[in-house]
Request: fold
Amino acid sequence: MIAAGAVLLQCTAAPPPLAATASPSAAPSSASSPPAPAGATVQPVTAAELGPSWRPGCPVEPGQLRRVDVDHIGFDGQTHRGELIVHEDLVPEVITIFEQLYQLGFPIEKIRTVDYYPAADDELSMEDNNTSAFNCRGIPGTNQWSEHAYGRAIDLNPLLNPCIYASGAFQPKNAAAYLKRSRTDPGLLHGGDPAVHVFTDRGWRWGGYWTTPIDYQHFERP
Reply:
């Protein structure tokens, strides 16, 4: 995976047969900070549980992945429970990140694993503004795996934070209203936002700092 300035198109792809290779966002109005989130829970996953998001030949085995259940503040200002599939090495960081997003009051509409959508279709997940992590898929136009295929990337509120290509194309397809990045809707990400720093201060890279594509939803951990 190439960092800022990369030409690789990270946003999404239908899973091709690949060879494995090694200004602050607004929050819901509240007179006080949200209560402490419930503790995260961590469980192993099987190939059957991963469904269409994993298949033989993917660069990680199910045994290297974990299901992490976390609390988050929804767009209704209430506490909700969501689940992410991430690489086992990242579990402590992911738990801390989502605890801090919760304490910031940063709203996340929903957090579901991509197998909730037919064929684990990333476009459908993005159009539904679903925050997700693991999905065994490639980088469009390359023979390389996405960091999502390793469980080492998270897409946050992807409808509000689209991926924008140099050609002007964007994903998800229903995100036209959110191409204007001067918007301050709750859940949008901007450079320097506390929610962005929650990731980048821990060594995660944010696609919003890339030049092509600019992938506002995407965080990855090298």
